[in-house]
């Protein structure tokens, strides 16, 4: 291993840069940027395979959402491989995963959600209202506004009106969903 | 005319819609190309909403389980309030 690439401080920065690009969607973190910032004394030809190796390791760990036992086994195997990593590097990677695991997982989950998500919800209940379309007065009405949006896109606001009957109808459906969730979450 | 006005919306959308139908599905994302071990449950919802002219549109979205539970809790609050008004 080239002397320069053995330095551990740079490795933390490399892992951060790789995570920013692979998981947090930050464009523009190039090989050259990482090299010049973290390993300026190392040539690009030497840096490239090192970076590829670290990227591969990080992606494997994230893809399997490794717990700490799996992580230890995996990293130990990497230290024993020809052209693998040193045990110091394994320690740095392990520490990185432990502190970033949750955030990276959240980011991967978001990447796989292609439908709109619910971004916000607000509501109020009006005591008395008269609609120009009906003669009803003194009918309480719930008005609910849903903020819906796809990743990276502007929100859409959907405003819904419910009378008491409709509220109870929807409530019943929601309780069916809740029941399904409880069944799913029960230990096998 | 006294007491005759559309509910004043401080909402961001200017039209209210009626909910015509609410369909739901509880899904479990198992795996994806970027993560082989996803394992996350989600609630997918399809709303059929009608505007004042009667035109019906579909709106769909997903919620995580905690988001759904918040949605449900808020709706129960609405039910409690609307009962007392």
Automatic annotation (TrEMBL), chain A:
InterPro entries: COMM (IPR017920), COMMD1_N (IPR033776), Murr1 (IPR037351). GO terms for biological process: copper ion homeostasis; negative regulation of protein localization to cell surface; negative regulation of sodium ion transmembrane transport; positive regulation of protein ubiquitination; regulation of proteasomal ubiquitin-dependent protein catabolic process. Residues 117-185 form the COMM domain. Pfam families: COMM_domain (PF07258), COMMD1_N (PF17221). One of its GO terms (cellular component) is endosome. Coiled coil: none annotated. Belongs to the COMM domain-containing protein 1 family. This is COMM domain-containing protein 1.
UniProtKB/TrEMBL annotation, chain B:
InterPro entries: COMM, COMMD4/6/7/8. One of its GO terms (molecular function) is NF-kappaB binding. It holds the Pfam family COMM_domain. Transmembrane segments: none annotated. PROSITE patterns: COMM (PS51269). Residues 18-85 form the COMM domain. Scaffold protein in the commander complex that is essential for endosomal recycling of transmembrane cargos; the commander complex is composed of the CCC subcomplex and the retriever subcomplex. May modulate activity of cullin-RING E3 ubiquitin ligase (CRL) complexes. Down-regulates activation of NF-kappa-B. Inhibits TNF-induced NFKB1 activation. Belongs to the COMM domain-containing protein 6 family. This is COMM domain-containing protein 6. It comes from Odobenus rosmarus divergens (Pacific walrus). The gene is COMMD6.
């Amino acid at each position: 291993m080239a002397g320069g690439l053995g330095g551990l401080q740079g490795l933390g920065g490399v892992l951060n840069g790789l995570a920013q690009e692979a998981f947090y969607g930050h464009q523009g973190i190039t090989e050259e940027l990482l090299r010049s910032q973290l390993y300026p004394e190392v040539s690009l030809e030497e840096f490239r395979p090192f970076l590829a190796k670290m990227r591969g390791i990080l992606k494997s760990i994230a893809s399997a959402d490794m717990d700490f036992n799996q992580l230890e086994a995996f990293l130990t195997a990497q230290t024993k491989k020809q052209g693998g990593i040193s045990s110091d590097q394994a320690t740095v990677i392990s520490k990185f995963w432990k502190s970033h695991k949750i955030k990276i997982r959240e980011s991967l989950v978001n990447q796989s959600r292609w439908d709109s998500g619910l971004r916000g919800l607000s509501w109020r209940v009006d005591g008395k209202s008269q609609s120009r379309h009906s003669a009803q007065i003194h009918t309480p009405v719930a008005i609910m506004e849903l903020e819906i949006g796809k990743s990276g896109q502007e929100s859409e606001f959907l405003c819904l009106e419910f009378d008491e009957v409709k509220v109870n109808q929807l409530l019943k459906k929601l309780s069916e969903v809740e029941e399904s969730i409880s069944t799913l979450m029960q230990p096998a | 005319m006294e007491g005759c006005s559309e509910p004043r919306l401080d909402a961001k959308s200017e039209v209210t819609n009626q909910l015509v139908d609410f369909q739901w599905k509880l899904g479990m994302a198992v795996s994806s190309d970027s993560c082989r071990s996803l394992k996350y449950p989600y609630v997918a919802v399809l709303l059929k909403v009608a505007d004042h002219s009667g035109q019906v549109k579909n709106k769909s979205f997903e919620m995580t389980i905690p988001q759904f539970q918040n949605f449900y809790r808020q709706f129960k609050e609405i039910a409690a309030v609307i009962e007392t008004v």
